[in-house]
Amino acid sequence: MQESETLAVHESPSDTHRDSSVLKHRRLVFLVPLALFGGLAAVLGVGLSLDPHEVPSPLIGKRVPEFELPPVKGRANGLATADLIGQVSLVNVFASWCVACRAEHPVLVDLARRNVVAINGLNYKDAPNDAARWLDQWGDPYARTGADLGGRVAIDWGVYGVPETFLIAADGRIAYKHIGPMTAEFVRDKLLPMIEALRKRTPIDRAKARVDP
To answer: Comparing C-alpha atoms, which of 104, 74, 75, 102 is closest to residue 90?
Structure first.
């Protein structure tokens, strides 16, 4: 009987190195997309956890920008940097063409009626007649208005869109920024406590603003 022959196969060092490289490449092909997906999921998770109305602003804690604007057509008082020093106040960025501003406007009118805080309006890229008609039709809650026809002042304020509202401390520093329309619940639960807290830090403001019960 013929003895069968067994063929021994030996791998060369170059073959071993090639196999190792292929294995590493396959691992990278699998791990890189997984890592990218994980990073994207983390970013989305953080983004979803943030309140879209409370996007951090680099101007918080800084003095309001230097500016001076004429009033909206038909109004007597314009708006300038100096007008925002001496009492806690609001600067509300609005426009007649802004749909969300219409939803917010009754909240501002009610706030003005209660004489809780001085509200100033920054009218953003609006036609003069349209802005005047808007306030005549829906009510004018503003102590002062500034007609920012070209939108340059809004850029200095870091405005993303309309409406936006800034809470200004008595020393002229920006204390808070709210993006989007304010609601009655936001005013009651968050804005009014912040206003009161700022006033406690600045006694001079109590002599310049009356708060109705």
So the answer is: 104
